[in-house]
Specification:
Elements (H helix, E strand, L loop, with lengths): L1 H32 L13 H8 L3 E3 L2 E4 L8 E6 L7 E2 L10 E3 L7 E2 L12 E5 L11 E7 L2 E7 L17 E5 L5 E5 L3 E2 L5 E2 L5 H28 L1
Parallel strand pairs: 3-5, 4-6, 5-7
Antiparallel strand pairs: 1-2, 2-3, 7-9, 8-9, 10-11, 12-13
Helix pairs in contact: 1-3
The structure holds 2-acetamido-2-deoxy-beta-D-glucopyranose (6 copies).
Keywords: Membrane, Signal, Transmembrane, Transmembrane helix
Protein name: EGF-like domain-containing protein
GO biological process, one term: positive regulation of osteoblast differentiation
Length: about 230
């Protein structure tokens, strides 16, 4: 009986590891899918192409990728979806680390309000002329209409505007940018939980949040099923 328990514990650990690895793999996959949204690669002469070579990036399909020396894996810094026959833009989440996105020369009908939510690094976006900048003109330092395109340059920090947004954060929390036109409230140091009411160290929560939660859920399910099995003996 003792040995059996040890064995099932090992099985649980292996299962959890596999689950988390597949979570990571699917994340990587979506990141690369956005680079294959249409055929061709980023060309040298284009805005994204020039940006990529000046940032020491690597071109993969419609993406420019860079490895920032830190512990994070290679990520997208530029996305060139120009002339891709896109009519609707809803989810580019794999490219949320991008600094530059080109969506020009597409017959875009509409762009979802939340398409660029979380794109905190985005500082330059090229759109067809008749599409407004994400978050509106007030979310950008400079908006320019030129040769059939609209350029939105310099994402503004929504927390640093004379307006309501920053005031909306509960006590013990700080306003943080969360993409053009978006902000989020994150708990100040030492506070966590609902409305940041609890105090205490919780530094890794944001980083390990999704993985930790999945591990807890899977562990609990395994515990319940194993327990039921043990009882029935
Ligand atoms: C783009 O530039 C790189 C180096 O500058 C060169 O090796 C490559 O052949 C160029 N590609 C095209 C399609 O011009
Ligand atoms: C990467 O790290 C090395 C050593 O830590 C450093 O010399 C180099 O300048 C870094 N490169 C970049 C692009 O940060
Ligand atoms: C857009 O793509 C089509 C083919 O997919 C090509 O014939 C055309 O020249 C491209 N336009 C531009 C401006 O690159
Ligand atoms: C985009 O346009 C389509 C049809 O034109 C409409 O059904 C859809 O609700 C629109 N989506 C958004 C987010 O506006
Ligand atoms: C946004 O800026 C553009 C370019 O400056 C201008 O043409 C447009 O009218 C502005 N839109 C609004 C709603 O202010
Ligand atoms: C807020 O914006 C103003 C003007 O754009 C700037 O001078 C100031 O330094 C900004 N403050 C912060 C905390 O970013």
């Amino acid at each position: 009986m003792k040995m059996k328990a040890g064995c099932s514990q090992l099985k649980s650990v292996v299962l959890i590891l596999i689950f988390n690895l597949s979570f990571y793999a699917s994340y990587q996959l979506t990141e690369l899918q956005v680079c294959e949204l249409c055929s061709g690669t980023v060309l040298n002469g284009t805005v994204v192409g020039r940006f990529c070579s000046s940032s020491a990036g690597r071109i993969d399909g419609r993406c420019c990728l860079r490895n920032d020396n830190t512990s994070n894996p290679e990520h997208i810094i530029g996305l060139d979806l120009s002339n891709c026959s896109l009519t609707h833009v809803e989810d580019l989440q794999g490219a949320s680390t991008a600094l530059m996105i080109d969506l020009s020369l597409n017959p875009i009908v509409n762009i979802s309000d939340t398409a660029f939510q979380g794109f905190i690094e985005l500082n330059y976006i090229i759109l067809p002329q008749d599409i407004v900048c994400p978050g509106g003109n007030t979310s950008w330092g400079k908006v320019e209409v030129k040769e059939g395109t609209r350029l939105c340059e310099g994402q503004k920090d929504m927390c640093n505007q004379t307006g309501q947004l920053s005031i909306n954060c509960p006590e013990n929390s700080l306003c943080a940018p969360y993409g053009p036109g978006f902000s989020e409230c994150s708990c100040a140091d030492n506070y966590h939980g609902y409305k940041c009411l609890r105090e205490g160290e919780f530094p890794a929560l944001q980083v390990f949040g999704p993985l930790g939660a999945s591990t807890v859920v899977i562990s609990f399910l395994l515990w319940v099923t194993q327990r039921r099995k043990a009882k029935s003996f």
